[in-house]
Amino acid sequence: MTTWRRPVTLIGLALVPVAVLGVFFVLPVSGMVARGFWPDGDFAPGEVLDVLTRPRTGRVVWFTVWSAGVATLLAVAVGLPAAYVLHRLDFPLRRAVRAALLVPFVLPTVVVGVAFRQLLGEAGPLGFLGLDGTPVAILAGLVFFNAAVVIRAVGASWESMDARPAEAAAALGASPRQVFLTVTLPSLRPAIVSAASVVFLFCATSFGVVLTLGGTQYSSVETEIYLLTTDLLDLPGAAALSIVQLVAVVVLLAIAGRLRASADPSIVRVPARPRRPRRSDLGQLVATGLLLVFVAAPLVTLLVGSLQVGDAWSLDNYRALTTTGSQQALLVPVTEALATSLRTAVDATWMSLSLGLLVALAVTRRWRSRAERRIRGLLDGFFMLPLGVSAATLGFGFLITLDSPPLDLRDSPLLVPLAQALVALPLVVRTLVPVLDGIDDRQRQAAASLGAGPLRAVMTVDLPVLWKPLVAASGFAFAASLGEFGATAFLARDDHPTLPVVIFRLIGHPGAMNYGMALAASVVLAVTTAVVMAAVERLRVPSLGAI
Amino acid sequence: MKSISAVLLTCAFATASCSLIGTGDDEEQATAKAGSEVVLVTHESFVLPDEVRAAFEEQSGFELVVRASGDAGSLTNKLVLTKDDPTGDVAFGVDNTFASRALEEGVFEGYEHTTPAGVSDFDLDGDDEHALTPVDNGNVCVNVDDTWFETEGIAPPETLDDLTDPTYEDLFVLPSAATSSPGLAFLLTTIAAKGDAWPDFWADLMDNGALLTSGWSEAYQGDFTQGGGKGTRPIVLSYDSSPAFTVDGEGGTTTSALLDTCFTQVEYAGVLAGAANPEGARALVDFLTGPEVQAALPDSMYVFPVAEGTALPEDWATFAQQPTDPWEVDPAEVAANRDDWLTQWRDVTTG
């Protein structure tokens, strides 16, 4: 009996998320790609192949790969010291800093673009560097948005790492540098690879940053797909690039999967308590400080701008948030849009958490046979795919595939939170999987042999360890949903716009008041995120974190 | 501390009323009033005051449902992609640079009707079945910051050619033709004005230090000296209505539009082929050219009405001048050449 029960349980766990992803991702995306291959109802793959040989396609792909690659390296380089400082050291305001560093993640790119350009532009304080509209500006923007991903993911793993091997190495005479290179780094590797692969995907598919900060000189695969789809209606071209993007994502995931092999979970861990900073931590502290300055600069620009009306200091921009803007720029006051955003984010969070948890549980069971392991690998990669697809492809795909019963969902209020949940899902999965992987399966076996059912085993073995990362993941999901703009702009319905959609509208209309309100609304979005994050951090229950 | 956070979180979720999927009432309304509603598909810039929407519902007896997303380009493409099973009854917001594509694909159904005086002046050339009814118009024009030029003691530019004059080196900022609709309109202006020599004009323009941004917001709000931010460039590509938004409070405005550099954008509404409620759709198209909507257009959507005799808001009447003889390009020619022009434009400007 037990021989078939395991696979059935595993498939059962994965069934719901697979079905959801199938309907809301695979179906729409393949629908759009199919339109490219069958432009007028006849199969004509020639056009698609043609696109691949255009010199422009080569340039676009190359730019995407190198810019995302360099940005990922930079994000890891600045993220590692910060992860150490914020998760291993104990100092006042540590949690506040952690929450603040997640803020960039939710800001609408158009606002960040304007803030960055006020810094780097011709008249800005950094204008003399001449960086405006260069790849350097793009890289800075990508790192600004993604450093938090590295800090959070690596930090969580660093925090729960067993301190004793490092202590043993030190006791045996290893220098701090040797300890870091031979003990700490190898055990952080799964988390770093996880974070880096997610960051790479975010960078490679980032849309607003490349457009806003790079002037119009640079095109990535993502911006190219967007232009081909929404502007030129060149569906074969868009299909070709979408396939390139998907193939690249699959290859990347396969490589990352190999590098991600987890540490032996059968070792009992004694995580180190955060300690006071010492003199030897100076380097990391300085690096973290610099990162904070880098992240704070555009945010301060935003804040200062939001507090000015004309050349005078004023709170009028904030007072105006309860109105619909000058010249009726908006249908609903900004405050109402904020409520809509929070509501949507709650929905997106529980959706991505429940889906992500099921996926993570299914993927991290000990898979016995080779076939089982292969299925596991496929499943693992499958849920990362939404990162590698353009919002334009998905948005149009929804329209052409979800249009007839039983899937007549085009106008469903479900679509916005669900699209946001899909965006957050890879982050959730990537945060949970390394932790679950680190649980010794013998604990589950012990629970089972003591008479615990599968559910009870999960509750007593997995859940206590999972609690912290689950909270971290929910923070990610909530933040990702609050700031999500691409898919939302395609789907958001007129009467219930979210905050980023409203900010985009405000900034897109003349009138100094509307611009000031857009800045004020961005600050509100940033502060809301920081407060929710800080609250979530506080709610962590320390006793449950230790095994 | 922990309890405070718990309270905070609870508050946050309470304001969000812990939504488990939307507001719910939408669904009920949808089923209760099926057949009695008109669905308007439009772009994200569409706004109508509540009282105007209420007026439509009262006059026609239909409930108005608005689905707004994307820009004019993505709206058109969305309509083309869903033409066999449209997402609504009426579409508003397809403009004269995208209209040909929609007509070729048979997205709209012909609707012959009498429109208020002045509306038919804006009819689309080549639209024989009268599938598209003009609703509003606006011009994309180069704008200048008059106060800047006054302070510097330089005469502001007036024509397209002035923009390539070294006097105005590094002063012009404009959104890209590839990523923004005013940008595309300006490309068409130069094509209308310069004929086949337009790539040379653009080469000169770029040599003279013109700055391209991805969208209107980045150019106007970020780089223009009279935008919301701290820009440094006193010449920007914007609209003929923009000077009405830079009123200085002392009876004047700080910017003006160069009326020799304008291209007219007309936005149309049309009944979608295969609409579930064609009767309601026609009522809505009539209503959009009616007095309530026409009067609300400047304040709500920053565009001019097409019906003659519609009163303009005070600032508009004083400061928003419309060109008498804007540049034009035949819509059919736009449809045929748009992609080639854009490719060529990209080559010239990124060279």
TrEMBL record, chain A:
Residues 61-256, 338-536 form the ABC transmembrane type-1 domain. InterPro entries: MetI-like, MetI-like_sf. GO terms for cellular component: plasma membrane. The keyword Plastid does not apply. GO terms for biological process: transmembrane transport. Pfam families: BPD_transp_1. It comes from the Bacteria. Keywords: Cell inner membrane, Cell membrane, Membrane, Transmembrane, Transmembrane helix, Transport. It is found in: Cell inner membrane; Cell membrane. The chain crosses the membrane at residues 60-84, 96-116, 136-155, 191-215, 235-261, 282-304, 348-367, 379-402, 414-436, 470-492, 512-536. Its main location: membrane. The keyword Coiled coil does not apply. It is a multi-pass membrane protein. Belongs to the binding-protein-dependent transport system permease family. This is Thiamine transport system permease protein.
TrEMBL record, chain B:
GO terms for biological process: thiamine transport. The keyword Signal applies. Residues 1-16 form the signal peptide. NCBIfam families: sfuA. It comes from the Bacteria. It comes from Nocardioides psychrotolerans. GO terms for molecular function: thiamine binding; thiamine pyrophosphate binding. This is Thiamine transport system substrate-binding protein. GO terms for cellular component: outer membrane-bounded periplasmic space. InterPro entries: ThiB-like.
